[in-house]
Structure formats: C-alpha cells, structure tokens
C-alpha cells in the first residue's frame, strides 16, 4: 500500500505482482482504477472531472462507488466531493469511510482488500444510519466501466416445460428501456450489452441468481461476483443487478436487499472482483462458453 498522486488527487495505491487499485483520498470514497500495472484501466475516467473537489453538484467521475438505493434526487446524489472522514489499513488493504451526509444521514464505508497472490479484490460496502430516524435503503455498488466494451450477463440454465411451469426470472424495465437497441445481443445462455459512444441511455434490471457478471474492455475481462438472497425484498421491482449505458460508459451494478435501519444500525453488501487479460472479444453464446466461463 502506497500514498500516490492520481489524476490530480491524493490517493492510495494497492498492488500485488500484477495488478493495482487506486482509491481516492480527496473525494468519494471511490475506487478509480483497477488494471494491470501500467495497463488500461477497466473503469471509466471522466477527464473533465479528474482532480476536482468541492463542486456544488454531484460528480460521477468514473470508477467504482457506493450509493444508497432506491434511486432518487437528491437522495442518491448526495454530494461526496470532499475528503472523506478516515482511511485505515486492514489486512491486504484499506478501510475508507465518509462522514454521514445531511440528506440521507447515512455514513458510507468500503473495506477494500487485494489478494497478494492472485488478481482478486474483495469490497465490503457498508451503510450506517447516523440520523435520528429509521432509514429504508439498500446498499448499491456501482462500477462505471470504460467505453467501447461490453457486459456479459449469464442467464439461468434452461428447464424443460414438462419439469417447471412457473417463471424463474424477473426483469425490470425503465421508461427509456429499448430492447430493440442493437447494443443488446440476447443468446440462449447469456445477454451481451455493448457500450456505444453514439447511443444514449438504456437500462435493465434482473433478479440475478447466477452470482457473476463480466465486462470486456480491450483484451481485459473484469468479473464481478455477488449474491442473491431468496425471499429478500430488493429495490426496483425485486432486482439485485442492474446495467445502464449511455454515450460515455456502461455501469454494472449490484444491490443488497432493502432494509429499514434504526439509528446506529448498518447494512453491508459484498462484491468480489477478478481481472484477466488476453481474453478474445465475445460475439455470441459460443464465444462466452469458450473464452469467459472457464475464467469465471
């Protein structure tokens, strides 16, 4: 672990023999870089927002962030444009904590650990209610992926009609969702969603039980792992995974269950990440089976 300068900010660098993470100190908390040392960042970097602090409006900046769901303004867009409250060393990583905001009363914390001998990261996201009233919310972990890549979203294994008559999937659609958009490729076993700099917002949500999604950028494969709790109440029609894209980036987002936090109570949600390289671009289900699934 090192203290470094990154894109005009004070930051913390976590590294092993192959990969590195960069965590800002001056805003956020945000994880702004995950890459092979000296290589392409799998996350987006919004060039006009790098190095800034103290802005009067919320800034996306890029990278990975922690939010509170369900999405609303100003609830979700509470400012995080100042240095955060604390950064403490933990085993193989760092714990970063932001003071509670005046809108939500929620304090945000991420515990970020990089495995010393493999390209895996664990991020534990925590929201703590530090207001004087109950707060209903869900932990929301959003990764803003770099342009010109694509999300790889596995679908459940097929079940014969004679074995099950009830549904086993739940999708949520937004008012601007367009399934005729050529960025989507719907295959038998997976869904591909491409980022296209010429196309605007599109989004879906899924009650996702497959435990992973991936993003391909150049020859990099970023895999995000997360759980689904059967019987839990999730936001946005019961989904624990959402993906959104516009002209600048594509987000892959996981959510924890909706909870009602008493003052002083916390909710946590854990993601694991894995990074591989020299992975060919997938164009169909067969490519995903050949190039992606063996690395998951």
3D architecture notes:
The chain is mainly beta and 296 residues long. It has one domain: Beta-galactosidase, Chain A, domain 5 (Distorted Sandwich). Helix content is 4%, strand content 44%. The protein has two helices and 21 strands. Strands 6-7-8-9-21-17-16-11-14-13 form a ten-stranded antiparallel beta sheet, covered by helices on one side. Strands 5, 10, 12, 15, 18, 19 and 20 form a seven-stranded antiparallel beta sheet that branches. The chain has a four-stranded antiparallel beta sheet with strand order 1-2-3-4, with no helix packed on it. The protein starts with a strand and ends with a helix. The mean pLDDT is 96.
Which characteristics define this entry?
Beta-galactosidase, Chain A, domain 5, single chain, 296 residues, seven-stranded antiparallel beta sheet, mainly beta, ten-stranded antiparallel beta sheet, 21 strands
CATH topology: Beta-galactosidase, Chain A, domain 5
Please identify the structural class as seen in this structure.
Answer: mainly beta
Q: Which CATH class is shown?
A: Mainly Beta
CATH architecture term: Distorted Sandwich
Encode the helix/strand succession as letters.
EEEEEEEEEEEEEEEEEHEEEEH
What share of residues are in beta strands?
35-45%
Radius of gyration: 19 Å
**Major sheet description:** 10 strands, antiparallel
Largest beta sheet: what is the strand line-up?
6-7-8-9-21-17-16-11-14-13
Uncertain runs with pLDDT below 50, 5 residues or more? Answer: none
Mean pLDDT equals: 96
Number of helices: 2
Counting DSSP E segments of at least 2 residues, the number of strands comes to 21
Instruction: Give the overall silhouette.
Output: globular
Classify the helix fraction into a percent range. Answer: under 10%
- Number of structurally distinct domains: 1
User: How far apart lie the N and C ends?
Assistant: 27 Å
């Amino acid at each position: 672990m090192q203290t470094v300068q990154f894109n005009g900010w004070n930051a913390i660098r976590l590294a092993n023999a192959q990969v590195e993470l960069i965590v800002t100190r001056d805003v956020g908390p945000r994880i702004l870089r995950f890459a092979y040392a000296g290589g392409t960042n799998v996350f987006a970097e919004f060039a006009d927002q790098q190095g800034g602090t103290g802005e009067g409006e919320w800034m996306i900046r890029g990278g990975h962030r922690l939010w509170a769901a369900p999405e609303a303004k100003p609830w979700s867009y509470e400012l995080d444009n100042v240095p955060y409250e604390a950064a403490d060393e933990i085993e193989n990583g760092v714990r970063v904590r932001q003071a509670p905001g005046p809108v939500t009363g929620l304090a945000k914390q991420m515990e970020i650990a990089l495995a010393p001998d493999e390209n895996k990261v664990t991020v534990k996201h925590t929201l703590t209610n530090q207001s004087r009233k109950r707060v209903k919310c869900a932990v929301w972990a959003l990764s803003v992926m770099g342009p010109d890549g694509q999300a790889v979203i596995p679908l459940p294994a097929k079940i014969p009609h004679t074995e099950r008559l009830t549904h086993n999937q739940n999708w949520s659609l937004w008012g601007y969702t367009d399934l005729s958009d050529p960025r989507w490729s719907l295959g038998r076993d997976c869904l591909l969603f491409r980022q296209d700099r010429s196309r605007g917002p599109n989004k879906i949500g899924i009650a996702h039980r497959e435990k992973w999604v991936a993003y391909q950028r150049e020859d990099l494969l970023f895999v995000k792992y997360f759980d689904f709790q059967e019987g839990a109440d999730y936001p946005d029609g019961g989904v624990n995974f959402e993906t959104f894209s516009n002209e600048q980036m594509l987000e892959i987002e996981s959510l924890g269950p909706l909870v009602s936090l008493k003052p002083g109570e916390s909710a946590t949600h854990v993601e694991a990440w894995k990074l591989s390289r020299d992975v060919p671009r997938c164009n169909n289900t067969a490519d995903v089976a050949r190039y992606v699934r063996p690395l998951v």
